Amino acid sequence: MPEPPYYAVIFTSRRTEGDNGYAERAAEMSKLAAEQDGYLGEQSARDDGLGITVSYWRDEEAIVGWRRNLEHTESRRRGRADWYEEFEVQVARVERSYGFTR
């Protein structure tokens, strides 16, 4: 990750039953996002039906570019129709970042 500031898009979701093509499409979207200008990376976790994916972006312009991507638009439509019971998205500016690795 670069030095802050940068942006985080936090996507929290609860899935519908069954895969219905979700896993394949999610892998495709991760690969496609990584090709977008301004993409910095992502982290994802799922436990007991709750999924959280955080994608990191250089700036708000990069986030808008990803949102306008036609394949991503189709995936959002399919998500509402088939894959998600509910979801929420937050966009945040990261001002500070630090960590620890043993």
TrEMBL record:
<dbReference type="GO" id="GO:0004497">
    <property type="term" value="F:monooxygenase activity"/>
</dbReference>
<dbReference type="InterPro" id="IPR052936">
    <property type="entry name" value="Jasmonate_Hydroxylase-like"/>
</dbReference>
<feature type="domain" description="ABM">
    <location>
        <begin position="6"/>
        <end position="74"/>
    </location>
</feature>
<protein>
    <submittedName>
        <fullName>Antibiotic biosynthesis monooxygenase</fullName>
        <ecNumber>1.14.-.-</ecNumber>
    </submittedName>
</protein>
<dbReference type="InterPro" id="IPR007138">
    <property type="entry name" value="ABM_dom"/>
</dbReference>
<keyword id="KW-0560">Oxidoreductase</keyword>
<keyword id="KW-0503">Monooxygenase</keyword>
<dbReference type="InterPro" id="IPR011008">
    <property type="entry name" value="Dimeric_a/b-barrel"/>
</dbReference>
<dbReference type="Pfam" id="PF03992">
    <property type="entry name" value="ABM"/>
</dbReference>
